[in-house]
């Protein structure tokens, strides 16, 4: 997708406000952004691909709902069959 979300001026301003430095690879070499690229791909597939939203608020709610699902309900084999939040809680309990 060529990193359009990273080029957004509001996104860049938010990063600057919180002193976060973005890293962008050259075209076709996204290894340093693989996690972010994977998330944005999943987000787009789960929300905007094959969906039509009547207004920005509907899209915004769909993104919020998807992030809630992604963190709290999506089961990952790599995370021992737990959601990301369950896995973090489980690991915290093991390390305590």
Termini Cα gap: 41 Å
Mean pLDDT: 85
Give the proportion of residues in helices.
Answer: 55-70%
| Sheet with the most strands, sense and barrel status | none
The oligomeric status of these chains comes to single chain
Order of helices and strands: HHHHH
Count of DSSP helices?
Answer: 5
Low-confidence stretches: none
Describe this structure in words.
By secondary structure, the protein is mostly helical. The protein has 2 domains: 1-39, no CATH class; 47-96, no CATH class. It is built from 5 helices and no strands.
Kindly summarize this structure in a few lines.
The protein has helices spanning 4-7, 9-17, 34-46, 56-72, 84-95.
Fold blueprint:
Blueprint: H1 4-7, H2 9-17, H3 34-46, H4 56-72, H5 84-95
Sum up the structure in keywords.
96 residues, mainly alpha, 2 domains
